[in-house]
Description:
The chain has about 220 residues and is an alpha/beta fold. Helices cover about 25% and strands about 20% of the residues. The chain has helices at about 55-70, 70-75, 90-100, 115-120, 160-175, 200-205; strands at about 5, 25-30, 35, 45-50, 80-85, 110, 135-140, 145-155, 180, 190-195, 215. Strand 5, helix 3 (about 90-100) and strand 6 form a beta-alpha-beta unit.
Amino acid sequence: MMNLQSSMDSEALPSAPLRIGDALMNFTARSTKGPLSLSDFRGQWLVIFSHPADFTPVCTSEFVAIAKASAQFEALNCALMALSVDSLFSHLAWTRMIRDRFDVTIDFPIVEDPTMAIGRAYGMVAPDAHDASAIRATYFVDPEGILRASTCYPASIGRSVVEMLRMVEALQRAQDGTALVPADWQPGDELLRTPSQCIEEVLAAADPTAWFYTQIPDKGAK
Length: 222
């Protein structure tokens, strides 16, 4: 895993956005939980989400909702990490305001990225962007530091925390390659068996559709 310092010159960063299956470059940066590196989260799932700015209405609603669901992410062995261009002191003041206004404590780290070095390297903002105010990117990272899914929302629309949780569980169910996740799946619903790639099994199936479409129980449901 390559190392990326959050203060690195943006011209040295890759211009292409990250794709599913890419390994995320490591970085070290200040956060509301102290200095941290991406490598600190190896061995567990991680959701990294960028937000346009502290002290804004939609971002505040997101952080309140995500913080309230933090125990659900923890139960999935999934950590949370927020990121924005705002300074560490802005993050600290905002989390204090959220606690005082909504009685909600933000327990996950919020990383400062004032030079947008991390945001640019991760493709969360364009290489030539002057600020990060136009995008809400979410990256779902597996325990090996590999990007497994991503979503992108405009600044005017908040993320669905329910969908974030569903995405983590869906990725975990499909991780070993023995099951696929169908449309509109919810934890506990049936999954789909991975189709056979053996012609003998395809021809031997009594049901001509069974080889590519067979529902199986969700054994990972709690």
